[in-house]
């Protein structure tokens, strides 16, 4: 009863995402396909955490499924909670690097490797904008 009175607490989906950085410091951005939710929006690859899975294990699994590469997690960035019209997403970002494999797009429509200063020009999924901004700011300071 108490929880039902707080609809904003329902439908919170935990989603991990990978900010993959290459040896030149470029960042990987992926474009969702026309048939996915948030069609053609840009995002960091990743996906929903499954029951019993850690965020880190989820990310490594999702990246293998979506891009066919193995990644190593270098750093966790702050979680961004974003309210879409029908669902609230907790976006859990990790900075990563590829340890093996060549990228093959299994689900996405397109991808780009971009300098951090080019990132904000993309049409990002709304939940990602704060993550991109944090990443840019963090890299300007460090
Ligand atoms: N993977 C990923 N998903 C994101 C990002 N930003 C963002 O809002 N999302 C949303 C899109 C989806 O609603 C959800 C992640 O689900 P998913 O990647 O497993 O995608 P999906 O196609 O299976 O999702 P859905 O169509 O079933 O909603 O989080 C992001 O940077 N990466």
UniProtKB/TrEMBL annotation:
InterPro entries: MutT-like, Nudix_hydrolase, NUDIX_hydrolase-like_dom_sf, NUDIX_hydrolase_dom. PROSITE patterns: NUDIX. One of its GO terms (biological process) is DNA replication. Its EC number is 3.6.1.55. Residues 10-137 form the Nudix hydrolase domain. Pfam families: NUDIX (PF00293). One of its GO terms (molecular function) is 8-oxo-dGDP phosphatase activity. Its cofactor is Mg(2+). Belongs to the Nudix hydrolase family. This is 8-oxo-dGTP diphosphatase. It comes from Mucilaginibacter gossypii.
